[in-house]
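Hi R.,

Here's the chain you asked about this morning:
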Amino acid sequence: MPKDKADLSKSARKNTSLRLDGKTLKALKLRAIEEDTSIQRLIERLIDDYLKTTKKKGK
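And here is the predicted structure, written out as tokens:
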């Protein structure tokens, strides 16, 4: 896996959608601006961090 997710080709990425509360989305947009990144990258980083720190149940 590439160290930088931005290096992935567009064909390697898959689309998904999610629904967020308006306040949550606004806070997410502001945080992305503060960190000079996109919402896409911010969410992807959060998910990656979550998956690294959690284990599958039953193992």
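One quick note: The mean pLDDT is 85.

Cheers,
M.
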